[in-house]
Amino acid sequence: MKKFLYLLLVLPLLGVFTSCDDDNKDLPNVSLAIDYSGGTEENGVVNVVQGNTLEINALKAIPAEGTKEATLTNVVYFLDGVPVGRTDIMPFAININTTELEVGEHYLGVQATVLQVGKSVGFAVARFKFNVLPNDTQEPGGDQGGEGGGTLTPDTQITDQGK
To answer: Contact 77/109 with Cβ under 8 angstroms?
Structure first.
């Protein structure tokens, strides 16, 4: 009888250990889409005239074909590797004033927590290049200070660790 009681006490513990699994193998399968205005895109690079504001109007998680819906939270933006803003509020908008930025190449990066139905929590990291043009420059396809805008889909990496 003692062996039977002992077995009843041990079985729940075995269940705890056998139910532990590495959930990180099933990461979200999404890409990021960045809706922007204040610049014009040319060959994957956004050109912004110095003094204009590059506006990120929305950041979206686009599920891969055949996967379920996904959403973002805890979005952090980085300008040339330095954090410049954080938001948890959809559509995750941010404005980058280029008045004080040097003319030339810059990078805007984003890190976000990704939640997708049926998947483990993941962390998306992406960045895109933008050029700050001298303020006497006309943007391609527009006039100086033109609105411009569009949607970028930068290469997105999904990991199981937020860094």
So the answer is: yes
Amino acid letter for position 75: V
Count of positions (residues) in the chain:
163
Please say whether the beta carbons of 64 and 28 come within 8 A: no
For 49-74, the pLDDT digits (tens) are 988 899 999 999 999 888 899 999 99
- Please confirm whether the linkage preceding 12 is cis (ω < 30° from 0): no
C-alpha distances out from residue 115 to 35, 38, 73, 109, Å? 20, 29, 8, 19
36/30 Cα distance (integer angstroms): 19
DSSP secondary structure code for residue 132 in this structure: E
Predicted model pTM: 0.76
